[in-house]
């Protein structure tokens, strides 16, 4: 029993370590828009862009982060490293804009 | 019959007559007019034809009924494919990076919509059914590519982008007025709804290119 409890704790710790510290936030790309359009996170948090459109998009903030092409039904994750406000867009569809604020 | 009413009832026929007269005029002017100028004169008429093809969709169906789901599927696939065909030509012909980038975007995005449409018709066991609208669309697309092939340089860019503006506006109108209201299957309706914002973004993008080209900015 004690062994099982220990294994369970170890499993939980391993799972947490894999995800890394920080919370996870989802930005959905759908209908040629980022939802939510503006998002505030803390350093170390993970932001995952999930593309639910029928074609590729990017999440690109010049010199800060660039997802490259995120395929339809694909996703891309970024860990917020530095405080600041970062406007980003889709390089394929420049009318698509969003903003990430890292505290 | 007032012109507007006439256009509403017989748009494709009228567009064809307009095209034929334009071709006749071009032949008369052949001796003194450079070839590129002649073709440039016809292209706005081809863009007009695209608009008429879609406007015609209301007149092609039995009274009170719109296209069926298999017919809508054929219209969607053809509408995307003719834009991909024009884009492939633009990508290999245009010397302007912004125009080539736009063309690549059309190939990717409309290809994505068609891939989703193909997956949906397979899932629903629907066979796209050719109909007067999809056939007219195909012909208008083929005519556009044939006319564009005779142009190059700035004339090509302008004609291609002008056509893209007219085409996307016509498709948005068709999606709103005919295709979404007529779609019976919820997933087909959802696909059309999901694809619509892309057509709007493409229209804005094409208009922006149109402005840049008219200023000589690209």
Mean pLDDT of chain A: 86
Q: What fraction of the residues of chain B are assigned to beta strands by DSSP?
A: under 5%
Trace the largest sheet of chain A across and list its strands: 2-1-4-7
Q: Radius of gyration of chain B over alpha carbons?
A: 18 Å
CATH superfamily of chain A: Cupredoxins -  blue copper proteins
- What CATH calls the topology of chain A is Immunoglobulin-like
Total domains of chain B, how many? 1
**Separation, N- and C-terminal Cα atoms of chain A:** 43 Å
Biggest interface found? A-B, 14 and 16 residues
Would you identify the CATH H-level superfamily of chain B?
Ferritin, core subunit, four-helix bundle
* CATH architecture field of chain A: Sandwich
What are the low-pLDDT stretches of chain B, counting only 5+ consecutive residues below 50? 1-33
Quaternary state of the chains: heterodimer
Write the layout of secondary structure elements.
The complex is a heterodimer of chains A (103) and B (218).
Chain A: H1 2-19, E1 24-30, E2 33-35, E3 38-41, E4 46-51, E5 60-61, E6 65-66, E7 75-79, E8 84-89, E9 97-102
Parallel strand pairs in A: 1-4, 3-9
Antiparallel strand pairs in A: 1-2, 4-7, 5-6, 8-9
Chain B: H1 3-9, H2 11-29, H3 35-60, H4 69-93, H5 97-124, H6 132-148, H7 153-182, H8 186-215
Helix pairs in contact in B: 2-3, 3-6, 3-7, 4-5, 4-6, 4-7, 5-8, 7-8
């Amino acid at each position: 029993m004690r062994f099982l409890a220990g294994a369970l704790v170890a499993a939980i710790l391993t799972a947490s370590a894999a995800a890394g510290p920080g919370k996870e936030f989802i930005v959905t790309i759908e209908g040629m828009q980022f939802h939510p359009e503006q998002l505030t996170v803390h350093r170390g948090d993970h932001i995952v862009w999930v593309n639910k459109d029928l074609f590729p998009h990017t999440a690109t903030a010049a010199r800060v982060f660039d997802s490259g092409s995120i395929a339809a039904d694909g996703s891309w994750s970024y860990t917020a490293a530095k405080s600041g406000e970062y406007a980003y867009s889709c390089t394929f569809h420049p009318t698509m804009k969003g903003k990430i604020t890292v505290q | 019959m007032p012109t507007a009413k006439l256009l509403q009832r017989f748009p494709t026929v009228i567009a064809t007559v307009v095209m034929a007269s334009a071709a006749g005029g071009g032949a008369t002017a052949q001796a003194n007019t450079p070839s590129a100028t002649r073709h440039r004169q016809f292209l706005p008429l081809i863009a007009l034809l695209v608009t008429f093809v879609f406007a015609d969709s209301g007149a092609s169906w039995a009274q009170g009924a719109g296209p069926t789901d298999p017919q809508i599927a054929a219209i969607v696939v053809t509408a995307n494919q003719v834009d991909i065909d024009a884009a492939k030509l633009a990508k290999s012909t245009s010397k302007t990076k912004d125009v080539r980038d736009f063309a690549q975007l059309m190939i990717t995005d409309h290809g994505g919509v068609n891939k989703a449409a193909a997956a949906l018709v397979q899932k629903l066991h629907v066979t796209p059914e050719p109909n007067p609208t999809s056939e007219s669309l195909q012909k208008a697309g083929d005519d556009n590519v044939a006319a564009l092939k005779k142009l190059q340089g700035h004339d090509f860019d302008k004609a291609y982008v002008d056509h893209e503006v007219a085409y996307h506006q016509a498709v948005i109108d068709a999606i709103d007025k005919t295709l979404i209201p007529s779609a019976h299957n919820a997933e087909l309706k959802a696909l059309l709804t999901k694809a619509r914002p892309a057509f709007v973004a493409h229209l804005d993008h094409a208009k922006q290119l149109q402005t840049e080209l008219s200023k000589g900015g690209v």
